[in-house]
Amino acid sequence: MERLTASELTHDMSETMQERKMTLVLGGTGKTGGRVAQRLAARDVPVRIGSRLGGPPFDWDDPTTWGPALEGVESAYITDQPDLAFPGAAGTVGAFARLAVERGARRLVLLSGRNEEGAVLGEQEVRNSGADWTVVRSSFFAQNFSEGFWVESVLNGELAVPADNVTEPFVDAEDIADIVVAALTEDGHSRQLYEVTGARLLTFGDVAAELSRATGRDVRYVPVSSEQFSSALLADGVPVDLAAGLTALFSEVLDGRSSYVADGVERALGRAPRDFADYAREAAASGAWN
Ligand SMILES: NC(=O)c1ccc[n+]([C@@H]2O[C@H](COP(=O)([O-])OP(=O)(O)OC[C@H]3O[C@@H](n4cnc5c(N)ncnc54)[C@H](OP(=O)(O)O)[C@@H]3O)[C@@H](O)[C@H]2O)c1
């Protein structure tokens, strides 16, 4: 049998190690995944973006894409689409987590939501997958107003949400990314569930005031019923299933059950969360609402 020379062997081993160290970032162009991928790349950690436009493409709706995306992957950041709380999502995430472990992944970090039954089921699936796991159970992101769901609302000056005067401790996606990167690259975060929130409880009225101050625009909060919220989504062309899921999610979660702050950022990073006003000022300065 032909033997490899030492240098070929070294090359071979380092290639294998290099491949094994690959970190898959699902939603790697999204609000948290994008920040996680950037931070890992800055640390020279080999990163693969898991998204429908990634190479190879990864699609939650097409399990045949999961295996190729997991090739050589040692760690993964799991963000579900459209939402871990939606019916069926936990089972899908569980199937993915088990496949990841079967293919050699050892560390899985899951993004979850607070006080959502479906999200807890998803967490259990990952916790039972056999991997070293970390769960980041997050409040609503501040970046929903600048990179997500509510950008158009801010630009139109009207935040119409079925939330009455319920408060939510919006968290900065920068904090989530810092925690996820720590969990993927450092010791001490295995088998930890971090419930992460911002430091302040804000009503959507408070958010509108913060955004008005930061943008110089007049942004108002308009409390609406679930029915009005759903009709507006459908009128905007949101598919029926997604509109129903989002309406159910908002109605379920924005009833006061999540109106408390948690210490996950402090516990994971040893520092306070970033404040919403700092987020809004920086997002405005970066041209998010131009
Ligand atoms: N937003 C919040 O406030 C919040 C709070 C707590 C928890 N979460 C959780 O965070 C997760 C992500 O939510 P998000 O709204 O913030 O989205 P996001 O991470 O900004 O999502 C966008 C990313 O998902 C990818 N993507 C979209 N559809 C996909 C599909 N079918 N298969 C694979 N990748 C897909 C996109 O890339 P491509 O378009 O290239 O596929 C992009 O990289 C959800 O599970 C949610 O439960 C969100």
Summarize the structure in short.
The protein is an alpha/beta fold and 290 residues long. It is 43% helix and 16% strand. Residues 1-19 have low confidence and may be disordered.
Structural overview:
The protein has 290 residues and is an alpha/beta fold. It has helices at residues 6-20, 33-42, 66-70, 89-102, 117-127, 151-156, 173-185, 204-215, 226-235, 240-253, 264-269, 276-285; strands at residues 22-26, 47-50, 73-78, 107-113, 132-138, 158-161, 167-168, 192-196, 202-203, 220-223. A six-stranded parallel beta sheet has the order 2-1-3-4-5-8, with helices on both faces. β4 (107-113), α5 (117-127) and β5 (132-138) form a beta-alpha-beta unit. α4 runs parallel beside α5 (117-127) and α8 packs parallel to α12 (276-285). The longest helix has 15 residues, at 6-20. The protein starts with 5 loop residues before the first helix and ends in a 5-residue tail after the last helix. The structure holds NADP nicotinamide-adenine-dinucleotide phosphate (NAP). The site of NADP nicotinamide-adenine-dinucleotide phosphate has 27 residues, from β4.
